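Tutorial, part two.
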Amino acid sequence: MYGEPKLSTRCIIHEIPHEVKIRIAAAYYLANAAQHAAEIYRIIKTESIDVVVAGNLLPPLLYYLLAKLQEKKIPLIFDLQDYYPTSAAGYIADVSTTIGTSIKGLFEGVTQYIIRHADMVTTPGVALAIYAREVGARKVVIVPNGVSEHFLQRHDGGEIRRKLGYHDNDIVIGYVGSIEFWLDMEPLIKAVARAQKEQLPVKLLLIGKHLQTKYSKQVEKMIRQYGIAHNTAWLHFVPHEQIPKYIAAMNLATIPFDIYNPTAYYAAPNKLWEYLSQGVPVAATPIPEIVAYRHLVHVVKTAEDYYVTIMKVSKSWPRAPDIHQVLQERTWTKIAEKMKQLITISKGRFNIYLSKSPATGTSADRNAQ
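Running the prediction step on this input gives:
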């Protein structure tokens, strides 16, 4: 997909030998389902795999059914990174429509089947862990998302502000991430428009673009409709190693998730920790993972909430709480080590489930999480 490796790794990557190349994700998986299942099973058999860690829906489902048919006893860890029924269905159809609801229901059944039959389910946050437990997971372990090591370095943001033509007194309201259907951008845009009418020097900075749906077109329309296009910079994606510098240029970073969208509701947004790494205050909607860390953020829901937060920022440039020590325990290197421990334990059929809480630094029995 990328043309060249992005990380140094000891992983051995097997490519499907005869895949049908289709750009639409749903059609791709359906067209290649049988080939995926056969190749996964072949790799596991020929490479003497001890543990299978699976994400997504169709490949792990087909693998499990095939393994069960062959009476294989290889432990299966299901890595539940988001709420797959809505996130997967949302790329096929609007989940509020009849066909979208039907597809979501199908994916819900697949997701819950895999959860119930996996030896262990790992999730990045509390909401997904509760969901997995409620639908019948045998064991659930929270393995939080991490941050890349380059986020541990603080930047002052001056370079990027000058590059984008911002003045020292400009109030930069930012968002970093995909512009997709799990966002609710309108309250944020309305708040920026109101602040603009109050003669505040506000700027909206969006870094990211759409993945597959047309939600970004709706955002473009709202930006024009509320009259803030001339104060909006939309940069699409930038190199990941440059993201800390762009975040540091913001006066307020946002996580405008739609709390009524299950994909957003169950999310554990990595951007929270990336924002906080640069000491930038964060305004975020009250999904469970945000509520769990409400002492670190400004919890917002309406345009009025955003506006009040923008007004607070306009009177000073408050820095977010210093979480450098917490971030050192949340680097991807540390998180990978936690996952490695779980995989190692799984070879003993999951007799021990202990992990370290990155929020408190205390030992916790994740068997109950």
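Residues 25-46 form the longest helix (22 residues). In part three we will examine how such features are distributed along the chain.
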